[in-house]
Amino acid sequence: MKQTIALLLLSMMTTTVSASRTMTVSVSNPMNIARADVPVVINLAPYGEVLSALVTLNGQEIPCQLDDLNQDETFDELCFLANLDKKEKQQYTVTLMDEGEPRTYPARVFAEMVLSNTKDKKLKKNQQNNYIESLTARGDAAYTYNIQHHHGVDFESELNGIRIYFDARQTLDLYGKFKKQLELKETQFYTDDEQKKRGYGDDVLWVGQTFGLGAFRGWDGHQPTLVEPVKTRTQRIISYGPLRTIVEVIDKGWQAPSALSPQPSAINMTLRYTQYAGHRDTDVDVLFNKDVSNYRFSTGIINVKGSEEFSNKKGLRACWGTDYPSTDTVKWSRETVGLAILIPQQNIVSEEPANKDNYAYVLKVNGRQMSYKVNYTSANETFGYHSAKEWFDYLKAWCKEIQQPVVVEIKK
Description:
globular; mainly beta
């Protein structure tokens, strides 16, 4: 009898008791316009270990996503998307659990890294399958541009598609769509003739050595500099979705020039790109391992040939223009695109005059990090914008939404 009681007590002491925490999250739209797919992000640090989550609105489950940002096998953030009418306030119930696994939902974003294997004659050019999640190259690697199939990590929402070159340019190159849908899993940025007939999009921009869409680079006091030399260069996928994909470019030991310091030390930089479902704009976070206030950096957008420029002189700069998407002008016709970048005013040193390559900014980072946004449209879109006026008018409205974010309140 004593032995039975002892075993029972031991069992009670060692049995893991699952726990859940429920909170109410109020999301308010301060604007007099309806807003769709507005990201709501909750920091999980105060809530202990979270292995799964459930979000409901009026008793109905809605998709959510758990993300491990620093890759330590612990979820750091919960994300869901809100659809709000003008001046509307919604109440979501969020339940965090320390057991189970993240729930699965239909993917609305996509990300991919693929090692090049074009020597396999059994595969078409756009059917590579050496999938990877992270890749690091030494700084003295001969030609990193060709290591990956589409020359670097790519990602998309239903509205856009971007690849980031795996070399010192680290340029964002663009994929234009005709329809709102995910395509990169099938086309892998190289649309074949059959896919074109089915209405799939393709590469719509030639970037060369330019900024493309908002590449982050150095500044030597006179002109932009590429991200070199470095000790190592890494690309990795942090999150695959279903509501947002997060990818990173990490440059360790970057000997960045500094116009304010004669002997700058090497710095480590992480560029984090976050793409939300339902969005054509992309968030860029720039993170450093030390205070870089004495450095100067640069970014901007390519000056598409013959493009029309727009600037609000407060950090928004855009263009609308037409050019060939590649040097192969026999197969591809000219493409018309609208590009934009939005920089916080506190990070702007100067808005440089346009030259033949770029609409550029000189930047400062106050401490160890800064953030900005990039945005684009292709005139091929059946759902988008088809003139400079339409594009610039949209960007003005986009800025107003950013300036008036939704208000999130959490009640435990």
